[in-house]
Structures are given as structure tokens and as C-alpha cells.
Amino acid sequence: MRIHTYKATLILSLFLTLIITAQVFPSAADETILHDSWDAVLMAGARMGFVHTEISRQEADGEVRFVTRMETEMEMMRGTDAARATISNEVVESEQGKILSFHLRMATSGEPMETTGTFSDGKLKIRQEMMGRANELEVSLPEGSIGPYATLKLMREKGFEPGTKYTIQTFEGQSLKALNIGIEVMGKESVIVSGERMMLNRLKVEQSIMPMMTIHEWCDDDGQILRTEIEQLSMVTMRTTKEDALSGSSSPKVDLLIKLSAPSDTFIPHPYLTKKAVYTISMPDSVDYSFPSDGIQMFTREDGLNKLSVATRAYREAPSQSQEFGNELQEYLEASPYIQSDDPKIIEIARSVAGAEDNLYKKAILLREWVSENISLKDYSVAFASAREVAEQRRGDCSEHGVLLAAILRAAGIPARCVVGLVYADGAFYYHLWNEAYISSWIPLDAAMRKGGNDWDAVHVKLGTSSLNSFMPTLELASILPTMGNLKIEVLSLGYGGPVLDVKDPGTLSFVMGNRYEDVLYSFRVEKPRKAMFDRPASPFTSSRLLTIHSPGYSNAELTVEVNSAGPNLELSRYMQRIQAAGEECADIDYFEIDKKPAIRFVSGKGAERALKAVIYDRDNLIVIKATGDDKWSKKLFKKAVKSFEFTAKD
After folding, report:
1. Burial class of residue 481 (count of CB atoms within 10 Å of its CB; 0-12, 13-18, 19+)
2. How confident is the model at residue 467 (pLDDT cuts 50, 70, 90)?
């Protein structure tokens, strides 16, 4: 047996939040263990973690109670950083299935969140504690709501006759909401469970909290659910042994950044300088998602195609130095468990950074700059931390930048919300979080990439917005889950302030004149030695490699010029740390300048893998010059290219 409804929500929440390290609740000495099972969690075929379920029977003062404990743990890669995620949940119910209490323990980036609830007088009284602060509220449960053990018994009573349909009403402790679960028995199927083929009953499960996610489960005739699939995420759980579940910690992990990205058919030159773009977006038939339209992006469906047009706009500062905000904006000014805009430390940051500035737009830009500059350790190992914790630790990824900026904007009296969407880098669109501040209209601010207002771009694609005011804020973003790993983006046109380029027929963007190559889009020229030869230049929209120079006369030494998206606030020292952390061997590192642009020169690899590299940081790109082959002649190619490299567009 297994409590499938709770298990699925726990996994989806962990998947969204990447919570790290919590403890499972210990069993009481006076209880009888009725069930103890372990299930492996896989994504795209790779082991991610496990679910441990324990059900016990307790008897005290003549009353029988059933306790369901669940521990879910996953470990995932995000780029070169690993994040462990664990959540523990305990639900106590009466013999009749009435929920008596629950206890949920999570730790977000090391700081635990404790949520407890007790049932009294027809309501759940809930207390949540985090970082020394407590919040209390009451939640009404619909009549007839039952706990997880009663859910299991009801499944057995209904049976597994194909076509059987029914709805279970219960409570979900992370969102603190009533949960309706629809179950339909589809019939018998042959499936694989931990290497063994079994004939099991297939169930189709839908949940009211995440209605966009369809869950398929397979159980035996006793109600033991032995396999679960969440189709939109390529995620599977299956019954295994305790030893196998725990041994999975050493298995290769899924890189979520790559797995969930939306591939693009185009390499976008200078992505963060784009002013206009038109895309078509393809999705599986099972994914029905409408991208939001606002003053920057417009989503339409034309001839069966999903078309998205993005055109940036320069924000015009309102002449008024203050604004009156209506009731519809009040939620974006409120403090919440994760966006603690009423915390003294948050208030002090807002006051010290922008307290002397009266103009709200300028105030917002000052706060965005402060967050970008003061989250000094930018990595993916931090989970979804609260604003107060980020203010203290000064580390994290885009979500940490987002919650902190939202908090200090609200503390400064500016309505703020979080945006979840996609941003382009190196041939794909990756999931990202940024902010919007309301200053006569909603304007975008991206502290993680130091973008916003007048320097916005057309490669940020909005999927949705949220105040993140709830006790479990990432569940507010759950509507985007079906898009993850299920989108492909085709670029039709790009504009940089001048004529719009048709990506399929852009005209001449690079050319060779004698010993010199010139690239129009990336605005540089480079020369080759006399005995070397230019290969035919590649289209900048189809390959990150712009140029290859080879030389039969130089023992077939070869030089390439490639380009990678860097973002607008990269530090080259941080770039070197990342490539070394990824396993690249680097020696003779030298920081210098090429045509007044910051650059690094170094030797990569050893022996036959040895290469000379120069990396130039130009606005929002890294231009990589790489020479390989015979040591003497590769040095000659490298020296000529580096010495002659010149930018044709000046900042």
C-alpha cells in the first residue's frame, strides 16, 4: 500500500523548491507499524531520490488513531551545483478518517520551516514558524474530508473495475488548502517495476491544487501502488527495497537546467541587446498553455501556431514623485512568510540604499542594483530561500535575487511581484525568475542579470506572475509545470534598434576580404597568417562557431572563434572558477585586454587535448578564440588572431 495522493504533491513541491535537509519524524514507542515501504524517484531515467512511507496504528485513552509519515528526498544537479531536497510530513487521523493533526518540516537553504495543525471545532488551527517568526491562521475543511489512511481504505472499497470513477476530499499540508483528488480506473496493464514485469491496475489521478498535472499510477489488487508516472515531467516512482532506495544517492543526477530548457533552432547574437523578437512555440498536444500578453509581449494563435511577439519599451518616468495604490495592488505591498518586507533588516536595507530618493523609478533601480551587487555568491546550490535569509547570507540564484528585491521594494513602498519565465542563453531558453515593480505601470527588473527598465531585452519570455505571499509560495507557480521540458522555440526575426532581421533570410552578415574576416552582427574583425586558410563562415544563427582557420602549411594546426551568451554582469574571474569547477584543466592564466575589452588568456588541457584559449567579454557575450594542433604552429595562429582582433562597434 502507499498513500499516492500525498506522495505526488510532495514530489511536485520538492521539484519546484529544491528544499534541502530535513528530519523524518521518529516513530512512537507505543505504536504498531502497519506498513513500511520505499520507492525510487527517477527523472528522464536517472535516479533522483526516494519516498519512504510508514503507516502505524496508535491506541491511547481507548481511542484508535492512524499515523502516516512520509519522507521524500531528492538530489538534483543545476549546472555544476548539486541541491539535496528533503521534506517530512506526518498526518494523524481518527479511526473514522477525520484529520486530527499534521506536522510538516522543511528546511529552505538550511533554515527549517515548521508547520503544525490541529483540528478543533470544525477548523484546522495552523501555526508556522520560520527564522524565529510565527504565523497563525485557521483553515476550514469541507465536510467529509478524510486523511491519507482513510483514503487508502476507500480505494480498496471502490475496487479496481475498469471505468470506476470517484473523488476523494482531503487536505494538503504544504498549500494549506482542501484537496480534491479524482481517480479513474483505466484497466489492467503490463508494466515494469524495478526490472520485473507485472500486470497491474492503471489509475488516472487528477488533483485540484495542480490540475494541469496528470498522474498515472499502477497498483495491485490490494491497492499497493507500485509505479507512478508524471508524464509532463518525465518523472517516475517505483517500488524498491530500502537498500536500493538509499544506494541511489551515488547515481548520476539530472541537470535540471538542461533537462527542462526549451531548445531553440537559433543562436541569438547579442541576446541581451535585442529590442524586438518574434517566435513560434511548439508544445505537445497534451500541453495547453497560453503565454500572458502585456505591454511587452503579445501571444497569439495563428493557423495552429503559437506565435509570440516581444517588443521592449523604454520606461518614461512619471512626473509625479509618489503614487496612490488601489486595492488591487495591496497584496504586492504586504509582508509574507518568504517576502518579509516588515523585517527590520529588510527595512534598513531599503532605507539606507534608496531612502533619500523621492522618484520611485530611480528608487527601484537603486534597489535592483544593490541586490545584484550584494548577493556576492551566485550559485545554484541554494534552494528557495526567504528574503530575510538572503539578506543575511548574500548567496543564491535568480529566485533568491527575486525574493530579496521584492521584499526591499515593498519595504520602500513600491508594489512588487515575481515573474517566472524563460531567458535565452547559448541556443536554448532556460527557466528564470525576475521581478516587476509597479510605477504607473508594471516594469521589469532583473537583479540576477542586472536588467530592467530602459535596458530590457526581447529574450526574456514571461510565463506568469505571483505575489509569492502564501505559506508555500512556489505552489503559486505550479501552473508552469506542464511547460517544463515540453517547449521548443523557433526564432523568426530579431531587431536591435535598426532594421529587423529575418532569421531565415538575413542577408550577408560576415565576409572575408583577403587575410581578414569581418563579422557584422558581433562587430569584430580578425586576420590570419599568410599560409592559413579561412573555412567558409557559418551562419551566426545556426552555430555558436563563427569562424575556423586551418593551415596545412602549419602541420594542420587549427583556430576557431566561437561565441557564448554571458549575461550583462559577468566577472571573468567567476567564469574561470566555473569552468574549472566543471573539470576543465587550466594553466598559465593571464588577465589582460583586447581592444579595451576584458579578456583572459590561458592553456586548457594537457597532451593531445592541449589548447590555447583567449576569452573576450564583449557587452553580453564571451568570444572564445581557441587554437589546437602542433604546438609551434598553433601558437603562431593564436598570436596572429589575438594581436589582430579588433571590435568595429565601440561602446
Report:
1. buried
2. very high
* Residue pair 52/10 in contact by the 8 Å Cβ criterion: no
Mention every residue, 6+ apart, whose C-beta is less than 8 A from residue 466. Answer: 417, 418, 420, 473, 476, 477
Diameter of the chain measured on Cα atoms: 96
Q: Name the helix (H) or strand (E) containing 165.
A: strand 165-172
pLDDT tens digits, one per residue of 334-361: 998 889 999 999 999 999 999 889 889 9
CB 149 within 8 A of CB 156: no
- 341 closest CA partner among 442, 247, 425, 415: 415
Q: How many CB atoms lie within 10 A of CB 368?
A: 27
Instruction: Return the residue matching grid coordinates 551562419.
Output: 539
| Lowest mean pLDDT across 134-138, 488-492, 600-604 | 134-138
Element (H, E) at 416: strand 416-425
Helix/strand/coil for 388: helix
From CA 196, how far away is CA 466, in angstroms rounded? Answer: 44
| Three-state secondary structure of 206-273 | EECCCCCCEEEEEECCCCCEEEEEEHHHCEEEEEECHHHHHHHHHCCCCEHHHHCCEEECCCCCCHHH
The rounded distance, in Å, linking the Cα atoms of 429 and 544 is 15
Q: How confident is the model at residue 379 (pLDDT cuts 50, 70, 90)?
A: low
The four Cα atoms 252, 256, 258, 264 give a dihedral, to 10 degrees, of: 150
d(CA 443, CA 316): 10
How far is residue 503's CA from residue 603's CA, in Å, rounded to a whole number?
36
Nearest C-alpha neighbor of 55 from the set 82, 83, 78, 36: 36
Q: Which 3 state secondary structure label does DSSP give 399?
A: helix
- Encode pLDDT of 232-245 as tens digits: 677 888 999 999 98
Cα–Cα distance between 139 and 314 in angstroms, integer? 44
497 CB-side CA count, 13 A: 9
Beta strands in 478-569 (DSSP E): 488-495, 501-502, 510-513, 516-519, 524-527, 533-534, 545-551, 557-565
Say how far apart CA 222 and CA 202 lie, in whole Å: 13
Looking at residue 120, what is its pLDDT? Answer: 78
Instruction: Report the C-alpha gap between 453 and 98 in whole angstroms.
Output: 52
Taken in order 202, 244, 7, 64, is the CA torsion positive or negative? positive
In degrees and rounded to multiples of 5, residue 407 shows phi and psi of -65, -45
pTM of the model: 0.83
Count the Cβ atoms, other than its own, within 10 Å of residue 319: 7
Q: What are phi and psi of 640, to 5 degrees?
A: -65, -45
Cβ contact 498:490 at 8 Å: no
Mean pLDDT of the chain: 84
Percent of the chain with pLDDT strictly greater than 70: 87
Q: Which of these, 482, 402, 434, lies nearest to 231 by C-alpha position?
A: 482
Between the alpha carbon of residue 224 and those of residues 53, 88, 193, the distances in Å are: 12, 21, 12
The C-alpha cell of 244 is what?
536500493
Helix (H, G, I), strand (E, B) or coil at 85: strand
What length is written for the chain?
Answer: 651
3-class DSSP state of 193: strand
Measured CA to CA in angstroms, residue 590 lies from 45, 52, 318, 613, 614 at distances of 42, 51, 47, 11, 9
